[in-house]
Design goal:
two-stranded antiparallel sheet; 4 helices; 6 strands; elongated; binds iron/sulfur cluster
Length: 114
């Protein structure tokens, strides 16, 4: 069964409000399949065996900030929002403050269990 990450939260924000996912430029795509096979964990892509091209079937399963498939694409045919947009989402979600808090909590847990 494929997990649906679209209903999860990203640093407390509904995942569907964060528009981070791949967009394929089909003019550039040569149908090598590496994006589809690379994203086996989140299963963002399906494969169209008739056209021999990827389909972004589950965009909100994409891990926010990941762009591995774009980096692997031999044709630079996979687009993501710019880094500045990602950082604005990070700041709107107060992710850095929340991360620090989580780390402090983990530290407390670890030191109290010793
Ligand atoms: S990696 Fe790039 S060229 Fe290959 S199938 Fe995916 S989008 Fe197309
Ligand atoms: S960026 Fe990462 S999680 Fe998102 S579709 Fe590509 S490989 Fe999958």
């Amino acid at each position: 069964m494929i997990r649906d990450y679209s209903k999860t939260k990203w640093w407390g924000i509904d995942r569907r409000k964060i528009h981070w996912y791949p967009i394929i430029d089909y003019e550039r795509c040569v149908g090598c399949g590496i994006c589809f096979l690379t994203c086996s964990g989140r299963v963002v892509y399906d494969w169209d065996f008739e056209r021999m091209k990827p389909i972004v079937a589950r965009p909100y399963n994409c891990m926010v900030g990941c762009d591995t498939c774009a980096k692997m694409c031999p044709r630079d045919a996979i687009l993501f929002p710019p880094l500045g947009r990602l950082r604005r989402w990070r700041d709107e979600a107060k992710a850095i403050v929340k991360a620090r808090k989580k780390i402090e909590e983990l530290k407390k847990k670890l030191t109290s269990s010793q």
